[in-house]
């Protein structure tokens, strides 16, 4: 039994499997491009409804156009397993040989492994995001009408828009158009009250929720069809965000270490990376 | 002042001039090799191209101009050709310039710059996503040209060795571009991936291709020529998956 586990473990961690999985991913994603390009409407709800709800509705009923996405999930799962097994094996060897490696080089030796583990963290973060995120799509706020965050006693009210307009006339289509609506919000939590600004690309974080500005009116300085003030929000509580942000930071650190070792230590021909036991 | 003048003579015309000058530097390189005189064409071409990029940025700022890749890629590759002209063989130099001319011609004949920018591109993440991505594509294409030189020789090892640093830097830029794209996606839409944009799949496909290539390099199981072929295919993939989708319908250049 132990022998069988060892064989399976070894096969799962093979670097050739990594290459094959990567090539399958390239083919699958290329097919995905064609499907997504022709049927964007099938995939856009993935942004809001979550993975399981999407699979039950759009995914299952349009299998000919969504099969590539299911293949993508399978291939990414296999790649995660392959990466975990391969990296864990190598980290174990590295730790066992730590006394043979000069201390200043030991951290650089970890760089590729940091990147590999970080990729797993990012993908797990995505999965958490698509499985467990609570999303309230298109909540509309008008001035003076409070909105209560679900499961809390926090009330959010739109006070006003303080818009920033496109300056000059370089782009005729944007003349007098709002570039940044800058929505002033009043956030009331029990007895406490504060004001906050919600803007494009500047979400507001509140009690574990994040509020994103989806749309707004008015869009022009004067005239236009609709002068009434309104903002549309997407409200999300997403447990995957810290994970994938941590993964991104971790991967970047690993990448920086790897490049630093490559550029500084190899190109400038510093001391050899493997030192004798006496040197450490 | 300068950008206003460009506005008058039209960015399109200036880009056509840049493409013509790239073509002349290629012709010069093909006949006389990469001599100093080639710079007579290459430097003004780069200057004209840089002005077009600056003009499009000036018009759209603080937003990101749309479909800029085909206009910026020749500038990046031309700059690389200029910077590394002493290290590269004449054939490599000409290979890069051929690519520059093809990419620039594509942008002239199939422009897609009529889309106006959108509000959510007003963030540093969007600009970083774009520039890091173009730098990554430039490195991958240089690696492909180096590798193609290796395919013509019996021993492809030296050519592949020359392409490895470009693959590594391309991978680093491409990865950072993906990360900044994810951060933009998060602050703008609240999700790590925006599924309305099909480009997400080609971006990921390119990343996985080069992950595969780097791992293949580590196995050491393929011959150097095999790895050169893989790298050359990567260049074609970069053009097919990340450059071609940024082209629009055909437009007669003299129209």
Which tags fit this structure?
heterodimer; A: 280 residues; alpha+beta; Tick-borne Encephalitis virus Glycoprotein, domain 1; 4-stranded antiparallel sheet; 9 helices; 10 strands; disordered C terminus; B: 255 residues; 2 domains
Task: Tell me briefly what this model is.
The complex is a heterodimer of chains A (280) and B (255). By secondary structure, chain A is an alpha+beta fold.
Descriptive report:
- The complex is a heterodimer of chains A (280) and B (255).
- Chain A has 280 residues and is α+β, with helices and mostly antiparallel strands.
- Chain A folds into three domains: 1-96; 101-132 and 245-280; 134-237, Sandwich (Tick-borne Encephalitis virus Glycoprotein, domain 1).
- Chain A is built from nine helices and ten strands.
- Chain A has helices at 2-12, 15-38, 40-43, 46-49, 51-61, 63-96, 103-109, 111-132, 240-267; strands at 134-141, 147-148, 154-161, 164-165, 178-180, 183-189, 192-198, 204-206, 209-217, 230-237.
- In chain A, a hairpin with a 2-residue loop joins strand 8 (204-206) and strand 9.
- The longest helix of chain A has 34 residues, at 63-96.
- Chain A starts with a helix and ends in a 13-residue tail after the last helix.
- Chain B has 255 residues and is an all-alpha fold.
- The two termini of chain B are 27 Å apart.
- The model of chain B has no long low-confidence stretch (mean pLDDT 89).
What distance separates the N and C termini of chain B?
27 Å
CATH class membership of the largest domain in chain A: Mainly Beta
What radius of gyration of chain A results from the CA coordinates?
26 Å
Structural class of chain B: mainly alpha
Q: Which oligomerization state do the chains in this entry correspond to?
A: heterodimer
Low-confidence stretches of chain B: none
Count of β-strands of chain A: 10
Uncertain spans of chain A: 268-280
Percent of residues in helices of chain B: over 70%
The pLDDT mean of chain A sits at 88
Alpha plus pi helix count of chain B = 9
What fraction strand of chain A? 15-25%
Mean pLDDT of chain B: 89
Q: In whole angstroms, how far apart are the ends of chain A?
A: 40 Å
